[in-house]
Specification:
single chain; 124 residues; alpha+beta
Length: 124
C-alpha cells in the first residue's frame, strides 16, 4: 500500500471556528471546498510555514463532538480499504464512499475508536 499523504484531521460542526483558531497559530488555508460529494462535506485544508498540514471537515448536519483522526491519501483506495476493513475498521458510510470527479474517500473507525479518512485522488 502506497501512502502519499498522512496528517491530522478534525471533524467538527463548526469548521470556520476551528480554521480561525489555527490561522491564529500560523496556518494558512490552502483549499476550502463546500458540499463535497453526496454527503455535503465542507473541507478546509491548511498548511503552516514548516509544511505541516491539517484538514478540517464539517459533514452536513453533523452535531457530534469535535473528533480527531488521520487523513491518509493512498494510490489504491480498494487495496487500503480492504486492509483497514480486514483489521476491524468500520466505514461510517456503511459500504459506501464519497465520490467526486477528483477523488474517492471513506471515513473508517478503528476498533479502538480513532478515525482514518481514506482518500484516493484520481490521477489523470
Amino acid at each position: 500500500m502506497e501512502i502519499t499523504t498522512f496528517n491530522p484531521q478534525i471533524v467538527t460542526k463548526d469548521a470556520e471556528a476551528i480554521a480561525t483558531f489555527f490561522e491564529e497559530l500560523g496556518f494558512e488555508r490552502r483549499h476550502n471546498r463546500e458540499n463535497v460529494g453526496e454527503y455535503g462535506v465542507r473541507g478546509i485544508r491548511m498548511k503552516d510555514a514548516n509544511g505541516f498540514y491539517l484538514d478540517i471537515s464539517q459533514p452536513k448536519g453533523y452535531d457530534g463532538p469535535d473528533a480527531t483522526g488521520i487523513r491518509m491519501n493512498v494510490r489504491d483506495f480498494d487495496e487500503a480499504y480492504d486492509l483497514l476493513i480486514s483489521s476491524g475498521f468500520k466505514n461510517v458510510y456503511g459500504d459506501d464512499s464519497v465520490k467526486t470527479e477528483s477523488s474517492k474517500s471513506a471515513f473508517l473507525i478503528a476498533p479502538s475508536g480513532f478515525g482514518i479518512n481514506l482518500i484516493e485522488h484520481v490521477r489523470r
